[in-house]
Amino acid sequence: MFYDDIELGTRLITLMAAAMLVVQFLMVGQRLLPTAIRLFSLQSLFLACLAGTVAYVNQARHVYIAAALTLLLKVIVMPLFLNRILERATEKAEVESHLNTPASILICGGLTLVGYMVAHPFIKPHERGHSTLAVATALFLMGFFLMMNRRKAISQVLGLLTAENGLFLAAISLTYGMPLIVELGIFFDVLIAVMIFGILVYRISEIFDSMDTNKFRRLRG
Amino acid sequence: MPLIFLLLAPLAEGLICLLLRSRLLMERVSIASAVINFVLAVIVARHVGRYQTMSVLNGFLFADAMSALVVLLTAFVALMCAFYAVSYLRADLEQARISSGRLKEYYTLTPLFVFAMFLVALANNLGVMWVAIEGTTLASVLLIAFYNQKPSLEAAWKYIIIGSIGISLALFGTLLTYYSAAHVVGIESIEGLNWSRLILEAQKLDPKAMRLAFIFILLGYGTKAGVAPMHTWKPDSYSEAPVPSAAILAAAVSNCALYGIMRFNVLTSRCLGPDFSGSLLLYFGIGSMLLAVPFILVQRSIRRLLAYSSIDHTGIMLVGLGIGSSLSSLGTLLHMVYHAISKPLLFFCAGNVQQKFQSAHFRRIGGGVINVMPVTGTLFLAVALAVTGTPPFCLFQSELTILSACFQNHNLWVGSIFVGCVVTIFAGFLYHIGQLNLGSPPRGVAPSESDWWRLGPMLLLAALVLLLGFWLPSPLYRLIQQAGQIIGSAP
Q: How many domains would you assign to chain A?
């Protein structure tokens, strides 16, 4: 059967990691917030599939749980929640960045290179196609870049969540995930964090009449 | 058992306060629970002082002298803040800065906040510790946004964004630590991140991964501790949060973050030798101290002044850790204790002044605080001297210990910069607090002192700040010594 083939499993994993990277680049170039949220959901879907494959290929049972939680929370619940906040905070749903799109993409290309350089010492030569760690580091860095580059509060949250996806990918590729209790704790924290982000975004858009964090100018020095 | 109760008590308090309606009941529950927490923390500390360690639930919760010390300090700070908060929030309610519904938010979130801090110190698993540190951020964000004004929302947003970036760096560091231990402890075992296991195998960890892990951990938890240049959230949060929450943030949460750094520092220095992590800690420590100096000199607001002072103190503790001798470890922990006692007092004084004069800006307050509020004014002067390391107060002793460890190890440059920073900050502080206190008060401010809810804890803290410099109760001193042996990098 095809799924007994470890070679194929590794190739599938690399393919899905690559797909995550492509989605990340799409997100950097994306101008509409609802689409950005959908892209995040898509990226998480790839992540969940990847985790499932890793769990199957390596017979690591607890990774199935992590995969299922990713599917439930990051593919379904969080995007729905973010969409609801977006509807409530009535504003034109454009992303608005500090840098323009070509410059952003160029920088993200550079960050991908940095990711490969950081991951290089950890890639063992006998494990072919084990470049998921490099992709993970790249996602992590690009997530931070998105947070800094975006002006709207919600798109900063999206940046953070993709960085989080990168972390999870790194965890899977390095050690087949963290111990289960830690992983559950992380999921719990991320969920609460997104809810608190939601509350804050809502309050900010009420009081500032905008989600644009560029209007934050009061606290200096 | 006390370990489990220590975690259950604040959780229960939070739940009860969520269900309560009356303000009086919430106040009583919060004080009762703070007292219970403190008693439990003392029990744990005594037990650990006698038997070195304790653990329950198959080693899921684990306390040695270091964790017991952090728990004790956290419980103490929370206790003082619980008393102070009663009067402070009542005044806020009277001045219509908040609605009565907001009170419930404070009384529900604060115990969760305390719970997360206890879990940081008691979790054996470094991954669970990470979850708990993230938990302290999440529990405190809405406390910073408490007043729901533009600046407070801005501060809360900055706090959660910078905090989340920091904490995900720390998660990456934790992950790399897990990876570096995987070939020793084996993958997929919960033990793979347990401190009690890792410390035994520290020499066998993968050095390449550990080096990278420590950098990420230092950046990540350093953000939480407010180390420069990741400190930018600190002045905003400390000046916008309600005073008791700000005091907890400054005196307790920074300890928890430092606690995380200390644990990883031990692992790293046992794996790679003390030089690598030690010199990194020294750089960041000295950097934080240097950064605080100009901002303290030209500061315009009391609360932001306190924030920069706390960045300076974090820097001092990192320097102490970085030197890595047994003397400097002792000095660092003494500093941690003394700082946790003096910082809340400083915040309480600032809170009294701010509520009385309706402003935290030196310009707008004008001066003459000591005429308007004699007790607060006097304590403010005294504690300002104390936090800048003036004798006869206790912080002088700990700073001197770190400094002498510095010269003992021939770190002449570090020692000289240290002295320079401390002296300049002393001058800056004295200038600001002197101007605030002396002179004639603005017209229309009637002299009146705060009530005993506030003066009680403030006088107690002031007594401790003076007393502990001369006399440490011997069980406490033994606990600090034991903890010093744990964090001292030499195996």
A: 1
